[in-house]
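Onboarding guide, step 5: your first structure request.
Type a short instruction followed by the sequence, for example:

Predict the 3D structure of this protein.
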Amino acid sequence: MSEQIKIFFAACLHYNGLVKLARWWLRHSGQRLIILSYHRAAEGNLRSHLLYLRRHYRMLHLEVALEELFSSQGAEQVCDRRTPLVLTFDDGYRDNYTHAFALARELRVPITIFLVPGYMESGYPFPWQEGQRLASRTPVREIAFEGRTYHLDQLKERNLLARAIDFRLCHAKSVAEREAFLTGVREALAVPPSVIVEEESMLPLAWDEIREMKESGWVSFGAHTMHHPMLAKLEDPSEVYREVGQCRTLLEQKLGHPVRIFAYPFGQPEEVGNEGPQAAKTAGYDWAVTTVYGINTPQTDPYQLHRIYGDVSRHWLVMAAQASGVLNRLMMALHP
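The system replies with structure tokens like these:
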């Protein structure tokens, strides 16, 4: 479904009162917690999202919200009866500092960021962005890759190569294999390290930016593995435990306080795998979030928490209908 059609449906749902009715139902159907999952913060409608959300929901840091959700007395002690909602950002892009943090501080809205510490201050974009960057920057005009020859003087061929590179990066059987593959691709495409990213907001956060956000009180942090592998694809189960556990250890050293929340990379069950939840428990996290759609209740598995996808490029009406759950129910009715 195109974005314009989604905006049309979302506007209908909003202005005929169904979004308001869905919010009312959430407030009166027992304890609920909505967790929105964003990545980038720049070049979109984040301000309009935040203005809407802070008006209609009780916005919290994730740790505070989860303490309340899973405490037998947590909700009873709250006077504000609006449904609690958390805004999370995965990966730790630089624009989480330049845009999300700036807005959080201005509008007095708490946010939570999940960090991948293995890439902080690396000078490179995250690996999953490299396919498009390398394919668009290479001076090479033809390359054989994975049994196919790509003619890179054609935009379509560059895009196909970028997707092929990204697929290999996401499905690597170890972090070492992924990094070796990436090094080989950079060399084959002759893109030197000196070719930097023009859009700095795509780079990972730096530690001084993270410390400033932490000290503000408006940003809290969780863990997102050391190097963001797809856990289900890792061949050695011990690497799953290292990626999950070492991330917590390093973040606690850098932040100076316990890190209790983990976000699975990619986050769907087939991407988390069987070892992921056990690794989160073994590492000592109290909770872990997926990217599986849903609204959480006290009966939700604390290591399989649901989130609703958020995107700053979407109109605030679409975000409003998504957060309430009514847009998803409409989509399911239209496509059973």
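Each response can be followed by summary notes, for example: The beta strands are 34-38, 58-59, 84-91, 111-115, 142-145, 148-151, 219-223, 261-263, 287-289, 308-309.
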